[in-house]
Design a protein that fits this description.
heterodimer, A: 67 residues, mainly alpha, 0% strand, B: 342 residues, alpha/beta, Rossmann fold, 2 domains, 6-stranded parallel sheet, 11 helices
Chain lengths: 67, 342
């Protein structure tokens, strides 16, 4: 069983905002990638590569807009 | 009247619990003993890479603890980095530990932060996390004047020192002055456990009992052999509560030699056992209690200075430590949260 992709998208957006609140910047790409990998790992193996890129973009965008 | 509900927020260090872990457990027990419905919440901080510090803060920040099982949580008492970023409208922070490697220990052998971009960003982020968690709190306490001074110096945040008794308060006892000096604590480099050992080389009649274990253990044992003092050193890697109480009660004096310690229970435990404390003039928290020539001895952090003082004794320490009680500590925390005891 894998997590609902919409739930993961929401998690990426919300946690991106929280990361920004904690001082993480959109340019901290390794951290945003590492964070997105954690979220993407909930999606199951098959979806990971493309989904990970997508989640990273969401988190980065959320971090940028939250600042 | 319903019991107020209070959560104590703390960080867990799996397999290496120390004074901070015992302290938050005791705080929770003391709240419960006074009729507060209190519970302890912990999240481990496991640092394999720098980002784990942010992950842990994110985990705390993501929690909503304003209501649990249909009932409001009246207050949160958060204690240690990064637990104090937890969200709650009635958040009291009692700072037990900041992440010192990013602040006062940066640039010393006790910090592994470098000048790399990632380390610089990590330090900036730790400061941002501290600023966020502490400035939104209703009230900020520090567990000592030393910690309050660091918060002012590095974060520009004012806090109020709030002391508390050591973990086994009520059980320490005085005993006859034995033939050994005692040192208690994790054998970590920044606690400078090599200093009392080296001092022994300058005090030919003195004996030392070392309670604790840690990464420096092997090096310290080699040092004792090199200094030819191993027959005067007793190693006690682990001591249960009764053993620790006995060791304090039977000591001649207690040596506390860390650099810029936050507070440290050891001086208080020594005083409640009627023993003087030998410490150094850069020890930080211990200097808030130890007065040179009154409740102990304060000397420069050099082996020969400690060695010279190892022979001396004092008896006036007990009164200073006996002034502390959980009643006044909890009254201060709950009153800051606007809560009266049931």
């Amino acid at each position: 069983m894998t997590a609902d992709p919409e739930a993961l998208r929401r998690l990426a957006r919300e946690s991106g905002k929280v990361l920004a609140e904690l001082g993480v910047e959109a340019g901290d790409s390794r951290w945003i990638r590492a964070h997105s990998e954690t979220i993407a790992s909930l999606a199951g193996r098959g979806r990971r590569p493309r989904f990970l890129d997508y989640l990273s973009r969401l988190a980065r965008r959320a971090a940028r807009t939250a600042r | 009247m319903k019991s107020p509900r209070v959560l104590v927020a703390a960080v867990q260090s799996p397999f290496s619990g120390g004074g901070a872990e015992r302290h938050v457990r005791r705080l929770t027990e003391e709240l419960v003993a006074r009729g507060v419905e209190a519970d302890l919440v912990t999240i481990p901080l496991i640092e394999r890479e720098r980002f784990d510090l942010v992950r842990s803060a994110l985990a705390w920040r993501s929690l909503d603890v304003t209501e649990i099982a249909g009932r409001a949580v009246d207050a949160v008492i958060a204690t240690r980095f990064p637990s104090y970023v937890v969200r709650h409208p009635n958040k009291i922070v009692w700072v037990i530990h900041q992440y010192r490697q990013a602040y006062d220990q940066f640039g010393t052998p006790w910090s592994d932060f470098t000048a790399s971009t990632e380390d610089r960003r990590t330090r900036e982020t730790i400061a941002a996390i501290d600023r966020l968690g502490l400035t939104e709190a209703k009230r900020v306490f520090a567990n000592s004047r030393t910690v309050a001074a660091r918060l002012r110096r590095f974060n520009g945040i004012e806090s109020e020192p709030l002391y508390h008794p050591p973990p086994l308060v009520g059980r320490y006892r005085t005993g006859p002055f034995g033939d050994y000096a005692l040192t208690v604590g994790r054998l970590d480099g920044w606690k400078r456990p090599d200093l009392p050992l080296s001092a022994l080389a300058h005090a030919p009649a003195a004996r030392l009992t070392v309670v604790g274990r840690g990464p420096e253990e092997g090096r310290l044992k080699r040092l004792a052999r090199e200094l030819r003092i191993e027959d005067r050193v007793r190693w006690v890697p682990e001591a249960d509560d009764d053993t620790l109480i006995d060791l304090y009660a039977g000591a001649r004096l207690v040596v506390v030699a860390p650099q810029d310690e936050d507070l440290g229970y050891v001086p208080l435990e020594a005083f409640l056992s009627g023993k003087p404390v030998l410490t150094t003039d850069d020890a930080g928290g211990p200097l808030e209690f130890v007065s040179d020539g009154e409740t102990g001895f304060v000397v420069p952090p050099r082996p020969e200075a400690l060695g010279a003082a190892l022979e001396a004794l004092g008896r006036r320490a007990l009164a200073r430590a006996s002034e502390l009680s959980w009643d006044s500590t909890i009254a201060a925390l709950l009153s800051a949260a606007g809560i009266s005891l049931p």
